[in-house]
Amino acid sequence: MVDLELDDGLAVVTIDRPHARNAISLETMDQLEKALDGAEGARALVLTGAGDRAFVSGGDLKELSALRTELEASSMAFRMRSICDRIAGFPTPTIAVLNGHALGGGAEFAVAADIRLAAEDIKIGFNQVTLEIMPAWGGAERLVALVGYSKALLLAGTGSVLDAAEAQRIGLVDKVLPRASFDAEWRAIAKSLATGPAGEIKRVMKGVPTTEAVAAFARLWVADEHWAAADKVMKRGK
Question: Which of 91, 93, 102, 161 could covalently link to 106 via disulfide, CB atoms 3.0 to 4.6 Å apart?
């Protein structure tokens, strides 16, 4: 099951398959596509898993083991890669909330997002090599962009699994949060991204002509929200 929660501009997509440690099946892919359809227009998008054991444990091997031909394997890979590409191309900030371990395809799902927030006790790893396969959902390329070529090759080539602190140290995770306050802290960060101008900031950071960047700033400058915030700052300064 994939749940979609809409909360005042914030869309939260939760993979809820406790019997499979939130692994992704073909049906999960169907539901993810529908959830992303429903999230269109959100000012920020969160991706997470149910419970506190697994964010996403990868592909659902019990189901995907039925794929025995190269055509079937490539079709599955293209489909899930397109979902991750859609997340990567989402127009407003996307946040992977690592409530539990993110392994194999789960790590690929996590790096499709702009930002990764992790509970302090999770582990993350591109460990597909333990099954004698490789990342196929775009995660290898995104891992290079995050940590650099040599570290990415070492991680994916050996299947190393990192704890949250080490993942943060190398730039694979952006922020590590205490387990006791995890739910409240990730939601506060996500809501902040959903209520401010982060969508425009993301668009400019992705690369637009100078004229568009300046025009985006000017639109924000003349907006009522800017003047209300500026008025509060000026009053505090008196």
Answer: 102
Are 50 and 22 spatial neighbours (Cβ–Cβ below 8 Å)?
Answer: yes
**pTM of the predicted model, to two decimals?**
0.94
Residue found by looking up tokens 């997340």 in the block: 87
> What is the fold, at CATH topology level, of the domain defined by 2-192?
2-enoyl-CoA Hydratase; Chain A, domain 1 (3.90.226)
Name every residue whose Cβ is closer than 8 Å to that of residue 86 and which is 6 or more positions away in sequence: 36
d(CA 57, CA 124): 10
> Which residues of the chain are under the pLDDT cut of 70?
237-238
